[in-house]
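Translate sequence into structure tokens.
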Amino acid sequence: MVAIVAAVGLGVAVLGAAYSNSQNRKAAKAGSKAANAQGKAQQGMNYFEATQMEAAAGQQQAMAQRNAQDELRKSAIAQSQALAIAGASGAGASDPDVTKLLGDIAAEGDLAANTHLYNGDEAAKALKVNAKMSRWQGDQARKGLGVQANAMLQQAKTQQLQTILDTAGSAATWYARRPKKDPIPDATPGGGTPPGGVPQQSGTSK
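Result follows.
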């Protein structure tokens, strides 16, 4: 009876270990799936931000070019007006003062135009650098969460193996310590119970 109870207890322990392993595997798979999904979502978000930054960089350069062209256009208008005024006053385009004035206006227009282009390029460059950084961060996030996901699965496998080893050890211990039946006593020449069941008398009968 004791042996049956012990065997039942061991069976329950084995079933409990199997159930625990099953639950751990399910939890690990769910956690791994969630980590991978989170990494993918983070990477997608970073890539989207990078695309937006690159688009903004293009817009910055386009706006800088428009502003530069506007400065050159205003410079050309100012030069025409200065030349018209000079002509009305009797000075020609070859007049040194007129020539210098036109040169100064042109130089200011070029400087303003180049300043817009420079500022646009610098702003675009910064946005492009940030876009690359955003993509890198997205890749690192997905990689890191992927490692975390794999670690969850590996930990579940390790726990499963440990549970199996513990259960096997418990089974071996139970088997070694299981209750044993008492042996049937053997018949002896000096007395005891022979197979027929009649006790033998020692000594000589009178």
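Note: The mean pLDDT is 78.
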